């Protein structure tokens, strides 16, 4: 017989069939349930209970940690009703980190020099000029942050690119944020025409950048005309933005846009020419345009001069960092006459710009001389040495 202490707490019910309970071959229609509720002490072994030494407070049901209803009534009130500013200088500093990093390593600042020279003619009120200069500088620095990401650059102005320090996502967000900070700054002048100019030239900037990236990524060599259009949108866009804003804030009725468009083309072709010369090595790396796979002005000329020769376009495809390969590409372009051609174009554009300066200077009489001298000093810097 099984001792009582080892018996099952509930008796095993009899075997049943579809007709009822079977007992010694006899069917019983029903039986009273033998199941009965058990207390914990009936089936848990008696003895000293184990108490864990580690607290399990964090495993308590969520309902036990839920704040009382009264503490939830005010949740989000400051944000919802905008009772006070939630944004802080500390957060602003985080967002502007990549921008401030690049801004702290200034370049040649040709745009500020151009603004100062054109203002000899346009005589924009000091308060407006300060805001315009600031806005153009913000847009320029922000656009460089994006350029370095999209071009996979290593150096900018002789220091590591911002995305190698802050990461790509933070840099893109910082640059986009600054675009809108610039718009907010410009809105202080309460001039609808300026907002229209800002929007138009930011669209042009992105159109130019978009085509430049498309040609690079699809390995499509553009025509010279398409390339110059891209330059007019991309590089010329910020130059033109500055001068159009100044004209909108000036009482002097002259049109400086053709001159600034010419300077934009001159600036970029000169930059392309110098990028494939040793003078650029320290600031951006040896022949950086070749590593980026970029169709710059001298590269386009070399490819177009002999479309059957695929050497240069295949070097671009590799986006090589091999210095010997890049030196070979530069020597190939030299033999193709690329640098001679770009020098001639630079000289031609400088001559055009000089004639436009003379015309604007003459149209203003004595008041135009100071501006003419300032513009010629700018043009003197835009030359092959």
TrEMBL record:
Its EC number is 2.5.1.29. It comes from the Eukaryota. Residues 15-25 have a biased composition (Polar residues). Coiled coil: none annotated. Residues 1-25 are annotated as: Disordered. Pfam families: polyprenyl_synt. This is geranylgeranyl diphosphate synthase. One of its GO terms (molecular function) is geranylgeranyl diphosphate synthase activity. PROSITE patterns: POLYPRENYL_SYNTHASE_1. CDD domains: Trans_IPPS_HT (cd00685). It is an enzyme of class 2 (transferase). Keywords: Magnesium, Metal-binding, Transferase. GO terms for biological process: alcohol biosynthetic process; isoprenoid biosynthetic process; mycotoxin biosynthetic process. Belongs to the FPP/GGPP synthase family.
